[in-house]
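Deliverable D5.2: sample structural annotation.
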Amino acid sequence: MNMQSVIFIVIAILVTFCITLIGVALGEENLLLGIVALLGAFILMGVGFSVKRKFRNSSNS
């Protein structure tokens, strides 16, 4: 497994954890935790897309 795959798997696991945490926050009626988890999921997905673009651009040049 190369380094790119490891990075993407770690980001995917963290995003999945954040999405699961949103459900837990809703169940516990904890608005602050839900907002933090939602922001975390969005930020991590953005990081994933940025890293993917960076890897794609570096392999094309």
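Annotation notes: The longest helix spans residues 31-60. The mean pLDDT is 94.
The annotation will be released with the project's public dataset once the embargo ends.
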